[in-house]
Amino acid sequence: MSASDSKAEVLTIAEAGESVRKTSSVFQQYVQPCLAELFGTSLFVFVGCSSVIGSDAVTPPALAHGLALVVLITVFGPVSGGHFNPAVSLSVCLCGGLKPALLGLYVVAQMLGGMVGAGMTKVLFSEMLYSAAHGAAFSTEGDKLGPATMAEMILTMFLCTVVCMAAVNKSTRSSLAPLCIGLTVTTGIFAGARLSGGCMNPARAFGPAVAAKYWAHHWVYWAGPVCGSLLSAGLIRLLFGDQKTRIVLR
């Protein structure tokens, strides 16, 4: 083999290795996190819906949602951050904890996950139980739209603030973040059950709404959480974030 042939072979091997590394990098940076968000959201919504259908009490759904998040965030947090919630992803992105290029992909994955989780619930429960609970879709009475939207905003602000301070903000990060986030969701459901149901998550509202075709006042579960997410990001960027996160008074 001539020297030129040998150099060509080395270059070919190097190019092949570089191509493999680029493919692996794209998978780990974009594909794998989105798959984790889709899978995790599916399980979260399935557990949440299953705990609501056939139950009139607040405690089982509150504990089921919170405990499911503790487990899922612990497992998938190192892969994707363990958001499973478009409002959380928005707040984390605005606080510098998520690449803007991933925000749209995360939201799509979470919405698909919500539909998958709600679909699994619909398959497993009897038609009578499922219909009686509207597939665990969220709704509120027409005369309570204002309070329900405010409740969703405040509770989502609470949740997003805990997520960003416990998992994103460098000076306040904690290894107990999954437990803190899960307990926040449980607390939010207890607090908001009578007003809005304590959703705090557009994907959790959207999936069952699609499966059950139940859209009564569905906009509340987008407007409230999105406003709460924006408010949380503003507070952290202006007041509570570390020197790197704050945009004023650095």
Spell out the blueprint of helices and strands.
Layout: H1 3-52, H2 59-80, H3 86-94, H4 100-124, H5 127-132, H6 145-168, H7 177-192, H8 202-212, H9 220-240
Helix pairs in contact: 1-2, 1-4, 1-8, 2-7, 3-4, 3-6, 3-9, 4-8, 6-7, 6-9
Helix content: over 70%
Which geometry do the CA atoms define? globular
Beta-strand portion reads under 5%
How many DSSP H or I helices?
9
Order of helices and strands: HHHHHHHHH
Characterize the main sheet.
Answer: none
Distance separating the two termini: 63 Å
Query: Number of DSSP strands?
Result: 0
Mean pLDDT, all residues: 92
| CA gyration radius, whole angstroms | 21 Å
Tell me the structural class.
mainly alpha
Low-confidence stretches: none
Overview of the molecule:
This protein is an all-alpha fold and 250 residues long. Helices cover 74% and strands 0% of the residues. The protein is built from nine helices and no strands. The longest helix has 50 residues, at 3-52. The radius of gyration is 21 Å and the shape is globular. 47% of the residues are buried. The mean pLDDT is 92.
Structure, briefly:
The protein is an all-alpha fold and 250 residues long.
For this entry, give a set of tags.
mainly alpha; 250 residues; single chain
